[in-house]
Design brief:
The complex is a heterodimer of chains A (398) and B (84). Chain A is an alpha/beta fold and 398 residues long. In chain A, 30% of the residues lie in helices and 26% in strands. In chain A, the strands form three sheets. In chain A, strands 1, 2, 8, 9, 10, 11, 17 and 18 form an eight-stranded mixed β-sheet that branches. In chain A, helix 1 (24-37) crosses helix 10 (354-367) and helix 3 (69-83) crosses helix 10. In chain A, 56% of the residues are buried. By secondary structure, chain B is mainly beta. Chain B has one domain (1-25, 51-84): 2-Layer Sandwich (Folate-binding fold). Chain B is built from one helix and five strands. Chain B starts with a strand and ends in a 12-residue tail after the last strand. Classes of the chains: A alpha/beta (398), B mainly beta (84). Residues 6, 8-9, 59, 62-63, 65 of chain B line the site of zinc ion.
């Protein structure tokens, strides 16, 4: 008999907590609800197959070198969990701390980078500023010629940053949650809610109604659709975000390189394919596909920076649906509906937050109040004006 | 790539355009009279439907005019009948 990593149970009549969406965040949330809070009567409902959304489609960059204190705190919490995750889940998730470079191509980039390095250090996040010569030494295939239209003028470097194998992360959390008694229910789309005044009593799904004491939204690009069923609006726009891989190549790149200015980022996966991405397609879209010119412009940037990539072939391109918030920071916490919680807005950069967001969200759900690391990311920041503006300040995503 | 129907120039490549988000979001006539929540809603809250969506485009590399279209956010098709 085949050994399955998790079971495929029929939904029960009700659960203490129903988590909507079995991406990385939903699975991690369920795991930490059980592990940290002893709440095991939990179901994770997934409209498709487990972790087939953004979790299967992201480029797996993990880092914590964000500018603002609130972001540094939650992403660094997450990075610390990544550092112990293979042991914790008893599954080698291929977490590789190969370091991430964020290149600077203009004087404003340089100033922003140095400022961010200093901010990171004050927050206990490892960060260094590298000169073009130091960049070249670390990544010899990078073109640091000052003749380029946008030459490399330096870079921030976070040595503890890196990548992991996204599928293994999802499967590891799924297995661990299943072992603690969590039900993972696939092909189960939530289409509505059973209301009871300011609360919900449960969810309406493609597999019948399921009662719930608490409901936790974890639907990434589809969160607005669920919120509109619940009668509130969220400051989100869902966009296609594309990525691509090359054919398998010899190992030529052992650092993650990101350039926000000419806009491409690239790493080389364990098997050898170059993994690249850039920004979202401009228009709102739920189609899990984007426009080819977006791929073309990130390839142009990649070839400019890495001339030896010119002859590599693109093997595959694809897209996910990312939920982008106005300040490029997540929304994590309570909602206008008393027993419904929200975790969304991670946009182009939530893979790295998987363990941290799951941890903090589980605590928020268990106690019915924001975890201290979640408090700055409450929905009401858009009314108070206390934005966590990672877009404006650092122009760094992913 | 999308083929965007400009009401003045006809269908043209998406790369000639800038995207403007949800259509028909008027600037408040008396901003100072709004509560914080109303102002937040004007600034930050936009519809994000899975389905038909009225949105704005700017033909930046063409006639340089704004216009509204209705587009489906899953199939990406444009509804006929573009309104300036
Ligand atoms: C191309 C691309 C590259 C990226 N690169 C990076 C990167 O390098 N680093 C990084 O940190 N982040 C990156 N991201 C972002 C990251 O993937 C997301 O922020 C993160 O995966 C979101 O959390 P999740 O895993 O829970 O989302 P998802 O995996 O999308 O999970 C949401 C789940 O909810 C389900 N769902 C939706 N509606 C319903 C419903 N009504 N009922 C039941 N289930 C429902 C969906 O089917 C889906 O499985 C990238 C994203 C993309 C698309
Ligand atoms: Zn025109």
């Amino acid at each position: 008999m085949t050994d399955f990593l998790w079971a495929d149970p029929e939904p029960e009549r009700g659960y203490d907590v129903v988590v909507i969406g079995a991406g990385g965040h939903g699975l991690a949330t369920a795991y930490y609800l059980a592990r940290n809070h002893g709440i095991t009567n939990v179901a994770v409902l997934e409209r498709g197959w487990l972790a087939g959304g953004n979790m299967a489609r992201n480029t797996t960059i993990i880092r914590s070198n964000y500018l603002w204190d609130a972001s540094a705190a939650i992403y660094e919490h997450s990075l610390k969990l990544w550092e112990g995750l293979s042991d914790e889940l008893d599954y080698d998730i291929l977490f590789s701390q190969r370091g991430v470079l964020n290149l600077a191509h203009s004087l404003p980039d340089v100033r922003e980078g140095i400022r961010r390095v200093n901010a990171n250090r004050l927050n206990g996040v490892d960060a260094e500023w590298l000169t073009p010569a130091e960049v070249k030494k670390l990544v010899p295939i990078i073109n640091t010629s000052q003749e380029l239209r946008y030459p490399v003028m330096g870079a921030t470097f976070q040595p503890r940053a890196g990548i992991a194998k996204h599928d293994y992360v999802a499967w590891a959390y799924a297995r661990a949650a299943h072992r603690l008694g969590v039900h993972l229910i696939q092909n189960c789309e939530v289409t509505g809610f059973l209301r009871d005044g300011d609360r919900v009593r449960g969810v309406v799904t493609s597999r019948g109604t399921i009662e719930a004491d608490r409901v936790a939204l974890c639907a990434a690009g589809h969160t607005s659709v669920l919120a509109s069923e619940l009668g509130f609006r969220l400051p989100l726009a869902s966009h296609p975000l594309q990525a691509l891989v090359s054919e398998l190549l010899e190992q030529v790149l052992d650092t993650v390189v990101m350039s926000n200015a000419i806009h491409v980022y690239v790493s080389q996966a364990h098997k050898g394919e170059l993994v690249m991405g850039a920004g979202v397609d401009a228009y709102n879209g739920y189609g899990q596909r984007g426009s080819f010119h977006v791929i073309e412009s990130q390839m142009a940037a990649a070839v400019e920076l890495f001339p030896i990539f010119a002859r590599a072939h693109v093997l595959r391109t694809w897209a996910g649906i990312v939920d982008v918030s106005p300040d490029a920071s997540p929304v994590l916490g309570l909602t206008p509906v008393e027993n419904v919680f929200v975790n969304c807005g991670w946009g182009t950069g939530g893979f790295k937050a998987t363990p941290g967001a799951g941890w903090v969200y589980a605590d928020t759900i268990a106690h019915g109040r924001p975890h201290p690391l979640a408090a700055p990311f409450a929905l009401d920041r858009f009314t108070t004006g206390a934005l966590v503006d990672e877009h404006g300040a650092a122009a760094v995503a992913h | 790539m999308l083929s965007v129907p400009c009401p003045w120039c006809g269908p043209r490549d998406e790369t000639e355009f800038k995207y403007g988000g949800q259509a028909h979001v008027a600037y408040p006539s008396d901003p100072a009279a709004l509560s914080d929540a109303e102002w937040a809603s004007y600034l930050f809250l936009r519809d994000n439907p899975k389905g038909w969506f009225a949105e704005r485009w700017f033909h930046s590399a063409g006639c340089r005019r704004w216009f509204d279209v209705v587009r489906h956010t899953v199939t990406y098709e444009f509804a006929p009948g573009v309104t300036p």
